């Protein structure tokens, strides 16, 4: 049973972005252009990489996001069955992407990835208060890769 100070919620693992027919035409056009270039230059490994990338992007656009259960406990953030201990993070920040909010846990280790957790707006204050009791809050911005993913609507 969860303690009174524990907070739990469910959220999708990523933001679903709209893809119209032009987006798919653009994906195939870029894939075809890179494939022609790879064939012309005899870069067979690059050709395989382009084909696999297009297939992976297509699969990811059709796969709906999973609903993941999150909990903030005295020990850390529980994401599904994985515990992310507070001691591994130096700070947290809040991002707003359109109408979606996420908490970003910033790792202490230099090359460790940050943890981004989406949450419903109604739970935001309790989540920020709970995280703020354990970690300092810093301003965070979308990194370069996140900006590319958002621009490409992947």
Supply the key terms:
PH-domain like; alpha+beta; 4 helices; 27% strand; three-stranded antiparallel β-sheet; 154 residues
Quickly count the helices. Answer: 4
Q: How would the global form be characterised?
A: elongated
Per CATH, the superfamily of the largest domain is Pleckstrin-homology domain (PH domain)/Phosphotyrosine-binding domain (PTB)
Structural domain count: 2
For the record, the CATH class of the largest domain is Mainly Beta
Would you tell me the overall average pLDDT? 89
C-alpha termini separation: 38 Å
Task: Give the low-pLDDT segments.
Answer: none
Question: What's the β-strand tally?
Answer: 7
Please tell me how large the radius of gyration is.
19 Å
SSE string: EHHEEEEEEHH
Instruction: Strand order, main sheet: write it out.
Output: 1-2-3-4
| Main pleated sheet | 4 strands, antiparallel
What is the name of the CATH topology of the largest domain? PH-domain like
Which structural class best describes the helix and strand composition? alpha+beta
CATH architecture classification name of the largest domain: Roll
What does this structure look like?
This protein is of the alpha+beta class and 154 residues long. The chain has 2 domains: 7-13 and 68-152, Pleckstrin-homology domain (PH domain)/Phosphotyrosine-binding domain (PTB) (PH-domain like, Roll), CATH 2.30.29; 21-62. It has helices at residues 21-40, 44-62, 124-132, 144-152; strands at residues 7-12, 67-72, 76-79, 82-85, 89-97, 100-107, 115-119. Strands 1-2-3-4 form a 4-stranded antiparallel beta sheet, covered by helices on one side. Strands 5-6-7 form a 3-stranded antiparallel beta sheet, with helices on one face. The chain starts with 6 loop residues before the first strand and ends with a helix. The mean pLDDT is 89.
